[in-house]
């Protein structure tokens, strides 16, 4: 099963504290993060709404109440790529 992980920016915007190291980020308790966890299944079934303004990568809208976000697949970076 794929898990969606919130970024540090997402956690900051939602005013959530960074989880302790023994707590996986996808288990962060917030309605927006919970909705984002359904993205892999919604995307596979054709039910996710794509962000059309971004065309270099595929991103999907995540909306819950007044909260808005986007989720997508981050491609693994090969080990031989130097850090920025």
Could you walk me through the main structural features you see in this protein, from its secondary elements to its overall organization?
The protein is α+β, with helices and mostly antiparallel strands and 84 residues long. The protein has one domain (8-72). The protein is built from three helices and two strands; from the N terminus they run H-H-H-E-E. It has helices spanning 8-13, 31-36, 39-44; strands at residues 59-64, 67-72. Strand 1 (59-64) and strand 2 form a beta hairpin. The radius of gyration is 14 Å and the shape is globular. The mean pLDDT is 82.
Main sheet strand line-up: 1-2
CA-to-CA gap between the ends?
A: 30 Å
Rg over CA atoms, rounded to whole Å, is: 14 Å
- Average of per-residue pLDDT values: 82
**Elements, N to C (H/E):** HHHEE
Number of helices, where a helix is a run of at least 4 consecutive DSSP H or I residues:
3
What's the total number of strands? 2
Strand count, sense and closure of the main sheet? 2 strands, antiparallel
Shape: globular
In which range does the helix fraction lie?
A: 10-25%
Which structural class best describes the helix and strand composition? alpha+beta
pLDDT under 50 segments (min length 5)?
none
């Amino acid at each position: 099963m794929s898990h969606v992980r919130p970024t540090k920016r997402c956690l900051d915007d939602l005013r959530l504290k960074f989880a302790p190291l023994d707590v996986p980020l996808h288990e962060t308790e917030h309605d927006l993060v919970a909705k984002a966890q359904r993205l892999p299944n919604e995307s596979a079934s054709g039910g996710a709404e794509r962000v059309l303004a971004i065309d270099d990568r595929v991103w999907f809208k995540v909306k819950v109440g007044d909260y808005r976000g986007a989720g997508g697949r981050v491609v693994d970076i090969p080990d031989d790529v130097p850090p920025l």
